[in-house]
Design goal:
This protein is mainly beta and 219 residues long. The chain has a domain of 105 residues. 10% of the residues lie in helices and 26% in strands. It is built from 1 helix and 8 strands. Strands 1, 4, 5, 6 and 7 form a 5-stranded antiparallel β-sheet that branches. The protein has a 3-stranded antiparallel β-sheet with strand order 3-2-8, with no helix packed on it. Strand 4 and strand 5 form a beta hairpin. The longest helix is centred in the N-terminal third of the chain and has 22 residues. The radius of gyration is 61 Å and the shape is elongated.
Length: 219
């Protein structure tokens, strides 16, 4: 029995010793990279010298940076005092007065053309400023009548007119109240610019003129 135990102990010792020898072996060292070896020179005929093969630099080496010298500084020549002249003082600018617009000439009478669109009857009449004038069922009152100034682009006559619709009173009945139909400026050159809108009548400005002088009685 003791002999068997001794043999088992010896076997275990031998196994442990073998494992220690394996672990104690040194690790393999890495081999350095090999550089490319240039091919041998090819001999040329007629005994000429072989062509040298250029040696390639190692891959890890780089060319040194180029050294560029900075340019010399530019020195400006000094400026003499007599070469510099003082600038003259600015002249005082006076704002020009705006040109006053020419005023329109005002007149006393407006010449108006009226049209009855039902009967095709047309009539030209004069309306003094501030005095109502009746044409059938319309009453015209001229507030102002002017002509364009010389500095205006278009020569024109302009009148501010108020038109009221007021039918005549029937016999035995009161006069109906007037109803305003138009109020504004009429332009002789452009009748359709601001026209009178009425289902039966139409009217537009012809011109503005001065009132005729009142004749005096001869004694």
């Amino acid at each position: 029995m003791s002999r068997g135990r001794i043999l088992a102990a010896l076997a275990v010792s031998v196994a442990l010793a073998g494992a220690g020898m394996v672990s104690a072996q040194p690790a393999p060292q890495p081999t350095p990279p090999t550089l490319p070896v240039p091919p041998p020179a090819t001999p040329t005929p007629n005994g000429a010298a072989p062509t040298p093969v250029p040696q390639l630099p190692p891959p890890d080496e780089e060319a040194p940076p180029a050294q560029v010298a900075p340019p010399p500084p530019v020195v400006a020549p000094p400026i003499a005092a007599e070469e510099v002249e003082a600038a003259p003082p600015p002249k005082a600018q006076v704002a020009a007065k705006p040109t006053e617009a020419a005023k329109r000439a005002r007149y006393d009478v407006a010449v108006i053309q009226a049209l009855d669109k039902v009967s095709a009857e047309s009539m030209r009449f004069e309306a003094a400023v501030g005095r109502p004038v009746r044409y059938k069922n319309l009453v015209f009152t001229v507030k102002a009548c002017e002509r364009s100034a010389p500095d205006e682009a278009v020569e024109d006559s302009i009148a501010h007119v108020t038109v009221e619709s007021q039918p005549r009173a029937a016999p035995g009945k009161p006069t109906p109240p007037p109803r305003q139909t138009f109020r504004g400026w009429m332009y002789a050159s452009s009748p359709g610019l601001n026209p009178l809108e009425h289902p039966i009548y139409d009217a537009w400005l012809i011109t503005c003129r001065a009132a005729a002088p009142v004749p005096t009685a001869v004694r």
